[in-house]
Design brief:
It is a single-pass membrane protein. It comes from Sutterella wadsworthensis HGA0223. InterPro entries: CellSynth/LPSAsmb/PSIAsmb, LapB, Rubredoxin_2, TPR-like_helical_dom_sf, TPR_rpt. It is found in: Cell inner membrane. The chain has 385 residues and is mostly helical. The chain is elongated, with a radius of gyration of 34 Å. It has four domains: 66-173, Alpha Horseshoe (Serine Threonine Protein Phosphatase 5, Tetratricopeptide repeat), CATH 1.25.40; 174-183 and 201-255, no CATH class; 280-347; 350-384. 72% of the residues lie in helices and 1% in strands. α2 runs antiparallel to α3 (51-64).
């Protein structure tokens, strides 16, 4: 009798469980059947420019069918492109931590997560993610390239040098130009911190890249000058002018001063005049006229400035003449007024411009903040070109 009672209770329970499971299965099937419809709706909203509603639709698709890992990745990309980095990180991190992913899918999720961190400016997290990604053979070189860009942004020049060398050996790429600049950056840091011995040791490494960029030759000269080796500095500055004459505006003043210190003022004057005649840029004229004014007097400098203006009727030459006249007669109201107007209106044209992206900088730079290119600035100002 007790067995019969237990049987009567158990059968209804089984019936209810079967009915509930059937209803749940139908519900799940019904929701799954909605996936194509919701996806189509999301795409239509995206094409119509209603990205907020499109994102909501895609989130609903992912909720209904968690197996759609590709859609989850795309959704994260869409959030990242909209600047919603926190939501993108949350989505890609959830995807990366899923236990049912294949190694390939997990690597793709990690790649997207690293891009989220990089776009959001979390460079330390991006670096950690790309380091982990570099252990995946198919993504190794891509991860190294991304790490290199992060090290440049964060001015981690030693790590950037090592990564660039890895890319040279493992990808067959050439990074001599970048490595030379990385060494120059490290030497500049050492000189600013008055670590002369570190600068000297780094110059020994930089010597291998001396012909990669004129900056390497200028940096070697700078270290020699700081060590009191003026003759060595002069030799390297001359090499810059001989091999890369367009970069003369960056070194001509220092070279002339060094030659003057060595007792060769006549040679320094000849160098200044020859370079001014050949280039006639604002920086070269300023270097020449300021030294002639100091060595031969304001009158000689004004005569030369007048001659330059007649030969090269440019705003730069006219401004140089005004500045010399202002030095000779600082109280002249008209000269002061015109010189002030020239300075005010000439700022736009006295800047340096990146040849790749057009970014304008008030001072010459070896690295463009706009596009990240090395050695893309012309040593001539916009007005001079």
């Amino acid at each position: 009798m007790e067995f019969d009672l237990w049987y009567l209770v158990f059968v209804p329970v089984l019936f209810f469980a079967g009915w509930w499971c059937r209803g749940f299965d139908q519900k799940q099937r019904g929701e799954s059947e909605k996936v194509p419809e919701i996806t189509t709706k999301g795409l239509a909203l995206l094409l119509d420019g209603e990205s907020d509603k499109a994102i909501d639709a895609f989130i609903e698709v992912v909720r209904v069918d968690p197996e759609l890992t590709e859609l989850e990745r795309v959704l994260g990309n869409l959030l990242r492109s909209r600047g919603e980095f926190e939501r993108a990180v949350r989505l890609h991190r959830h995807l990366y931590n899923r236990a049912d992913l294949s190694d390939e899918e997990r690597a793709l999720a990690l790649k997207e997560l690293a891009q989220d961190f990089l776009a959001a400016g979390f460079f330390d997290r991006a670096e950690a993610a790309y380091r982990k990604l570099s252990s995946v053979p198919s993504e190794h070189l891509y991860a190294l390239r991304q790490l290199l860009s992060i090290y440049v942004i964060e001015h981690e020049w030693a790590a950037a040098t090592e990564t660039a060398r890895l890319l040279e050996t493992q990808a067959g790429e050439t990074h001599s130009l970048e490595i030379a600049h990385f060494y120059c950056e490290r030497i500049d840091q050492a000189l600013r911190a008055k670590r002369s011995e570190d600068a000297r040791l780094l110059v020994e490494q930089l010597m291998k890249y001396a012909d990669a960029t004129p900056r390497a030759q200028m940096t070697i000269a700078k270290v020699a000058e700081a060590a009191g080796a003026t003759t060595e500095a002069v030799r390297w500055w001359r090499r810059v002018i001989e091999k890369n004459p367009d970069y003369a505006p960056l070194v001509i003043g220092k070279l002339a001063d060094a030659m003057n210190e060595q007792g060769d003022r006549a040679g320094a004057l000849k160098l200044l005049l020859d370079t001014t005649e050949r280039l006639s840029t604002a920086d070269v004229m300023e270097a020449t006229l300021s030294r002639i004014a100091a060595w031969q007097g304001i009158g000689a400098a004004e005569t030369l400035a007048q001659s330059l203006l007649e030969k090269h009727p440019t705003l730069s030459a006219y401004n140089a003449l005004l500045q010399i006249r202002l030095k000779g007669n600082p109280d002249d109201p008209m000269t002061k007024l015109v010189a002030g107007l020239m300075e005010k209106n000439g700022r736009k044209w006295s800047r340096f411009q990146c040849r790749k992206c057009g970014f304008l900088a008030s001072s010459f730079s070896w690295h463009c903040l706009g596009c990240g290119a090395w050695e893309s600035f012309s040593p001539k100002r916009v007005a001079d070109r």
